[in-house]
Write a structure and sequence with these properties.
Length: about 425
């Protein structure tokens, strides 16, 4: 039914676009805005052009409400393309107008998105503050539809801060509200959020159960974004807890494929980083290096800190296997020293298990020095450095370079 209504809406908008020259500037702005919304909902890149045109037209006629709406929606589109600073500027413009007009419902939704963008910029404290403000406003307005999403967002932000019990409480409230409403479009996303929280808490059974539920529901509605994230979670469960490498590798490959279909670059970056790890464990070091290069370049392009940290952690495994244990240990200390990644206890335990067999190559002093140097490094600069080094490394592998027999024999069992 939803797809049918969208097709009908597209037909109406197309007729309006065909008659655009006969319409007033205000109506033209509205038509471009609605067209942008439809294109954005379909995941089509033309949405940005349409919404930018709408914003320009609203600005020309000084329509404050139109500017507020177009800025917000354009900010969402820009966020999804990874330009988080630009998205934040657009959100701030919309927020200032809404506060001046006293418009509260849209403000609550806007604050939720501002929180989401702050996470991708690495500002967890700001993300928690914005999400908490959104929750308070939704409760004051008695807006359960907005509240359940804001609760979920606040819960996720608390996960990145390592405050798991609080996070899980908010996620449960959010999931309960979603289940009561029977919203089949948004319910899988609520299950994804609580699944990530449970994964961070090492509650693998419930994390897997919620992720599998999300897969089934997302498949019915064709939500590739949810499918991609759910398969990433399932891959991590298999890798970190079940010790089933082959199944983990399949899930990570499926996660990459789904995120490529949805054009979700952040989630694709996450999946590429973990696929690099499972590919290396499958014995294809060259392919692992190529996947890692792709993940790092993508993470730098869209400034996805969580994705970059995952890729740096994967790089630590690659370098120790190729014999550069000190560098691998530095990369491990850098990645796990950041709270966004380091608070995932199961991932820390697994990483230590992967690295332990190689540490015998170093003295205690060398280990301490490498850990200290890694913690003091700037992960964005290190990620850029890796993108400069990996192509040469991959070329060496292509020309027949392989790890020494001693290095290869220390591969940890999983």
């Amino acid at each position: 039914r939803t797809r049918g209504k969208q097709a009908q809406a597209e037909q109406h908008i197309q007729r309006a676009l065909d008659q655009l020259d006969q319409l007033s500037s205000l109506t033209q702005a509205f038509v471009h805005y609605q067209n942008g919304r439809i294109l954005f909902g379909s995941g089509r890149p033309e949405a940005e052009t349409s919404l930018q045109t709408s914003l320009d037209l609203y600005s020309q006629i000084n329509d404050a409400w139109g500017i507020a709406r177009a800025s917000f929606k354009l900010g969402q589109v820009v966020h999804d393309s990874g330009r988080f600073a630009v998205a934040t500027d657009l959100y701030q413009r919309s927020l200032a107008i809404r506060e001046k007009l006293g418009e509260q419902r849209g403000k609550a939704k806007l604050l939720d998105w501002m929180s989401n963008t702050a996470v991708y910029q690495g500002d967890v404290a700001e993300a928690i503050s914005r999400a908490a403000e959104s929750v308070q406003l939704c409760e004051a307005l008695n807006e359960p539809t907005l509240l359940m999403d804001s609760l979920g967002r606040l819960g996720m932000n608390l996960v990145w801060a390592g405050r798991y019990d609080q996070a899980h409480g908010y996620q449960l409230k959010s999931l309960t509200l979603f289940e009561k409403t029977g919203n089949q479009i948004l319910l899988p996303r609520a299950k994804i959020r609580i699944s990530i929280t449970e994964l961070a808490m090492s509650r693998f059974s419930s994390a897997k159960s919620h992720a599998l539920d999300a897969v089934g529901q997302a498949a019915l509605i064709g939500d590739q974004t949810v499918l991609g994230t759910a398969k990433w979670i399932l891959g991590l469960v298999e890798l970190l807890h079940e010790n089933r490498l082959n199944q983990a590798h399949i899930y990570f490959k499926e996660s990459v494929a789904a995120n490529q279909k949805s054009n979700q670059k952040s989630e694709l970056c996450w999946a590429m980083g973990m696929l690099s790890t499972s590919t290396q464990l499958q014995g294809d070091t060259k392919q692992a290096g190529q996947l890692l290069q792709t993940a790092l370049v993508m993470g730098l392009e869209i400034k996805d800190y969580f994705g970059l940290l995952q890729a740096i952690l994967s790089a630590s495994f690659l370098f120790v296997e190729l014999g550069d244990v000190e560098k691998g240990l530095q990369l491990y200390a850098l990645a796990m020293g950041h709270p966004i990644l380091g608070n995932f206890k199961a991932l820390r335990t697994y990483s230590q298990k992967r690295l332990k067999p190689y540490l015998a190559k170093l003295t205690v002093s060398q280990v301490k020095s490498a850990m200290k140097k890694g913690r003091q490094s700037d992960f964005v600069k290190v990620a850029f450095m890796l993108t400069q080094q990996l192509p040469t490394l991959v070329d060496q592998l292509d020309n027949g370079y392989i790890p020494s027999a001693e290095t290869a024999s220390t591969h940890p069992s999983i």
